[in-house]
């Protein structure tokens, strides 16, 4: 049974998520338009968030941005590491079984933030260390999470050409339409892939972790040298991240993805 949605809470969280995705403060009118909210309600929400310090109002410019309380909340999450505590042993078991480096990442604005990083023995160094942020549309972890977001939130994060960046010469989504088409495939497969978009010659696969409401809370990923991976190993990698994501979802009391997974093994 789907939990009932609380409209005020939903609107407030979407508003904060949109502000977190922007590189600079924005006008209230744009917030209302992007989030499809009545202007009066948008101003009421902003006033309450300003009062509690989660939003700052730049009066002379008539713009709004995240306030100090929002940054403190982000810092508190990193200090407590509840998701990392739950997921670390699952990631370690997955890496031991598969022999490739694994990660657990969460969405942070338009980026993914890595909260668990487990390096496999005799595998190359990676940029995805704990605390590192990378643009979500380039990473397998980010694509796994973005594929499960509501359309309005995806538009808020990646609705304009300027929202897209690149790290390598590997092709990746460069427009909102291209990203939507890529994510449609991710939703159909239940697995996200990335090939050379983060680091040349390296690829990744990822699966989404859900919380008790079914929300995409994080993603589990494995990264590997593309030249070493054949079709059989690719299937094992896909199955491993799906199984690990389902196990972390279970430990979060979340709803599973509904995609078939392999039999439980060392990840249990």
UniProtKB/TrEMBL annotation:
The keyword Nucleotidyltransferase does not apply. Keywords: DNA-binding, Transcription, Transcription regulation. It holds the Pfam family IclR_C. Coiled coil: none annotated. SUPFAM superfamilies: GAF domain-like (SSF55781), Winged helix' DNA-binding domain (SSF46785). Residues 69-254 form the IclR-ED domain. Residues 6-68 form the HTH iclR-type domain. PANTHER family: HELIX-TURN-HELIX TRANSCRIPTIONAL REGULATOR, ICLR FAMILY, HTH-TYPE TRANSCRIPTIONAL REGULATOR RV1719. This is IclR family transcriptional regulator. It comes from Brachybacterium tyrofermentans.
